[in-house]
Amino acid sequence: MNSAKPIIEIQHLWKEYGDNVVLERLNLSVQAGEFVSIVGASGCGKSTFLNLMLGTELASKGKILLDGEPLNPEPGTERGIVFQKYSVFPHMTALENVMLGDEFASASPVAKLVGRLTGKTRKDAMARATAMLEEVGLGHALHKYPSELSGGMQQRLAIAQALIKKPRILLLDEPFGALDPGIRKDMHKLIHKLWKEQQLTVFMITHDLSEGFHLGSRLWVFDKTRVDAQAPERFGAQVTYDIPLHKTPEIEEQLAGLVPGLSAKQTENEPTPTA
Known about the structure:
Blueprint: E1 8-17, E2 20-30, E3 35-40, H1 46-54, E4 61-66, E5 69-70, E6 79-83, H2 94-105, H3 109-114, H4 119-135, H5 151-163, E7 169-173, H6 181-197, E8 201-205, H7 209-215, E9 218-224, E10 237-244, H8 249-258
Parallel strand pairs: 3-8, 3-9, 6-7, 7-8
Antiparallel strand pairs: 1-2, 1-4, 4-5, 9-10
Helix pairs in contact: 2-4, 2-5, 4-5
């Protein structure tokens, strides 16, 4: 058993919208460096959970702790996010999009006034952004606009934008859902490489269980354990399965019970992450 203090602790977490209970009784902990794949039916609260982690939603009850302290209720540099829809600014080049993180975070009066860095600070930010774009395979596209990039390249740009401030936690909301299968495979390799190299703790929502299995070190299944047919909004989803993904025969059998046809053969040509 890992005795290290968790990076994330989720304690008796509930999220309600009026009488509609979306999430209930979540009690979980995550160690630094884990890759948590999150699956479940549409509408079961997966994105709501990610929004709670990001800080764009507040819990109705309970709390999320980061390093034993309440998570900042507003988005912060310790958390980066990549959405399915390419979340980049169309009027900025790839380099300008990635530099934006440093420009927003700058304490310089000029930067706060005009939203732009100047002098050596700008040169340093440009060097960091260039290095990050090269890391995600976009070193040749520094001065291209998003409209000049393919879907896969735009998602690489969104990943660079999310990682430029060196977050400890990366949130991925179905980041590869709109990509063609071949491009998705390339993106899987990139995310796996960045996860390991930057020692990230990752939470990824996916509707593709095999994708979650290939990339994750842990799998959470969100579902409702209590259902009232007369009032379906009365009960929220919980994590009904919490499975360590060490690719053992026992884990293969457990996953096969969740999704028929999933077998070890499907993972032979994929990277094999470890916790």
